[in-house]
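Technical appendix A lists one of the benchmark inputs used to test multi-chain prediction within the project. The record comprises two sequence entries:
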Amino acid sequence: MLLATLAGLALAGPPADLAPMSDLSVTGVAPSIPVEHYTLSNGLDVMLHVDRSAPQVVVNLWYDVGSKDELPGRSGFAHLFEHLMFMGTTRLPGAGFDEQMEAHGGWNNAWTSEDATDYFEVGPSNLLPLFLWMEADRMDGLSHAMTRQKLALQREVVRNERRQSDEDTPYGVVWLALPTALYPAGHPYAHPVIGSHEDLQAATVQDVKDFFATWYVPSNASLVVAGDFDPAVIKPEIERLFGSIPAGAPPARTPPAPVDLPAKPLVELTDQVALPKAWFAWHTVPLFAPGDAAHDVVASVLSGGRASRLHRRLVVEAQIAQEVSAYHFSQAYGGVFLVEITPAEGKSLEEVEAAVQAEIDRLAAEGPTADELARVRVNLQTDALRGLESLQDRASALNRYFVTRGVPDSLSWDLARTAAVDAEAVKAAAARLAAARRATLRVRPEATPAAPEGK
Amino acid sequence: MRPAAAAALLALACAPKVPPSPADAALAARPAPGPAPVYTPPVPVAYTLSNGLQVWLLEDHRLPLVDAVLLLPGGSALDPADEPGLTALADALLLEGAGGKSASAFAEALESQALALESDTTGLWTTLSLAAPAERWDAGLDLLADAVLRPTFADADITRIREQMRMDALQRADDPRALARLVGRRAWWGPGHPLAHPTTGTAAALEAVDPAAVRASWATRASPQGSTLVVVGDIDRAALTASLEARFAGWVTPPPARPSLPPPAGVSGGTRGIFVDNPGASQSVLLVQLPGPRLDQAPVPFDLAAVALGGTFTSRLNRLLREEKGYTYGARASLDSGPLVGVLEVFTAVRGDATAPALTDLLGELRKLPAGVDAAEVRKAQGARQTDAVESMETRGGAAWSLATLVMDGRPPGALADDLRAAAAADAAAASAAVAGVSLDQALIVVVGDLAQVKSAVEGAVPAAWSTEAP
């Protein structure tokens, strides 16, 4: 069944392995992002997705390196390095990267996680040759132009980011404490991506050069070009600009042993906040491993919307919680299932925590209802359609699926894998979320500060 | 300071050695961009239903999705003086049971069909947004009609949501950025102004709101007169009109009384500064507000100058405060032009120990603004506006909200394209002339930080009428 087609993206009939879902025929649609994928001789993977409906292009360049690859004593370095990528090269010095693209209506950004560092540019289609040149230029020679001054400046910017996003954000202390609560010392995920002030200050220019030479190489990168362009013109241009950059040889990684139990079962914190909150955190499984999708479904059954179990039972009916949210994040070396709990006024953390665990235990014992499973599936299907709307989202999805499973156009595969989760799989995933296997992080309000002086 | 010649020699001596690269030949010449493509935003069809409800429809059949925003005039400006938050409370209740369904049954009806329905309250409007798979549009519209025409407003649900909003109000003070905006809003509009209080009320006031007032709030303002439904997506006009007439033709409530809105108090006769204490904070939040043009004052050239000041990464403020001084993770400026007032706002969070020099630098950039912006800055702002326009119209939800903003501003359906044309036609002279009158004498500054650490330094560095307010 072909429901709709537009330049650049298509909705095809369901693949054979797509499980039957609810009676909504929209759920029979398999979203797809048409892509041409090839690999340059130096190992750079290239994905082209054409959509000429607006005069816009997106370039997404993904480096397969993140905070998990940092050396001891250098926490936060992968993200600091991301900032340094905008500090100029010999060919385009200073702030030229941002100035050149902004001069013509383009913009860019980047993000770093435990596993990945992803750079993207967005702008009118006439900027595509410039975007590609600038990415090739810094891939070829960023570190040659690195100086102590650049490093010192971006170190301060990153330390300000830490202050703004974690230290001075309500409950931000939790995100700084969570890695050490979950992982044993020395595990690649045992520190926050943002790093510590101490380690950021210890970083040297030589660290930058070494990190660049090790990880920022074509054989460790993948490039998506999406939007309004002619592949016949752009393919030779990509070959010309990137093809002669030496391949590099990123080291093979040895995945750490799976972690099952938290390093610290209970972490008590304080912050300048009005209300206490608690977080439950469990180890789950790596991305796309058996059980991964089932944990996603558990999160949706528990807190996906106002009809979800935790909201209905604890917020609406019992009124013991102000808010309860569950999430599942899975990455290369493991997943984390999180529940964030805000008690209603006058209710203790411990009381609401017990009620949340009781709901999880109930799901483990009884499983989800057929209606709950149908609700999760139809919402995932619609979310996937919404994921096709923005060019940036499509470019990002192609690179994410390519890096994580080797197949860029995997939206339908991903939906099918979630649709295949049945009640027994949900029960089994919920059963893993037993109280004894979790870390609990509590944040309580600091003592009331002194009243501000008047004038 | 070293003499320039000596500095140049030193720089040469320290210049990093660059080994040759196999890519040198390919990368020798940076490509110059060709002619920029022109983007013209699509214009929705506008028409009126039999009951007076305005409809704006933008058809987009590429994906089986429909997004809609229903806008009803009113907003928190209608709150009685002793009940701030009443309007937002009533609006939140629209989703907590309607059409004979309980709150949970209503949520189940929506979510089991992948329908998303949300309500929100601004100073002057109530909005209900619906996102639907195209084939569930009619079902979504049934539930939207229930929310608008048949909300339950059960006492128990009112009490529950009131308590949640009260707790949210308590939590708002935790966030220094939200706090700065609240204090800025209060001071800008002035005491007692209908737009001075937080739209979602205060904890103390919410505690006192009674259910009868909530029911009355909605009953007196839920009218199709002056309201608009914006629809974007996979539906045609005939089908849309039929689906709307079937559900809303009988909705004929008279329009609400418009609130009386005096002009904002603003600042005159010298810079005003407000400190708010945030003990132990590692950063200070800085908010500066200045008067700018209203929508009827052709604001586009001023907006281009505002983008040059702080609208993009390489804009003046971010370059100075982040990239040169390392004081902040980011600094931004923007112009918000509405029908009543225009405000140029600068917002940043800076390292606590750099608060005074950072604020001095920030104000220095504002002082320089009347000297004008150059042609390159204006071209950059024009490009940024076009790219923003493409991105904002890319998703059905984004397009629906872009058009909804036009409705709230009292603008015609083609105003997005008009603005892009006005931006393309403006030059550096026009943008410079628009900001020639910017003066710190009309500036309101809010500093939220650890006052024990920053207050005396700021007072010493920045001349202003300073006062300290409780959060």
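The first helix of chain A runs from residue 77 to 84. Chain A touches chain B through 108 residues (CB under 8 Å). Comparable benchmark entries are summarised in Table A2.
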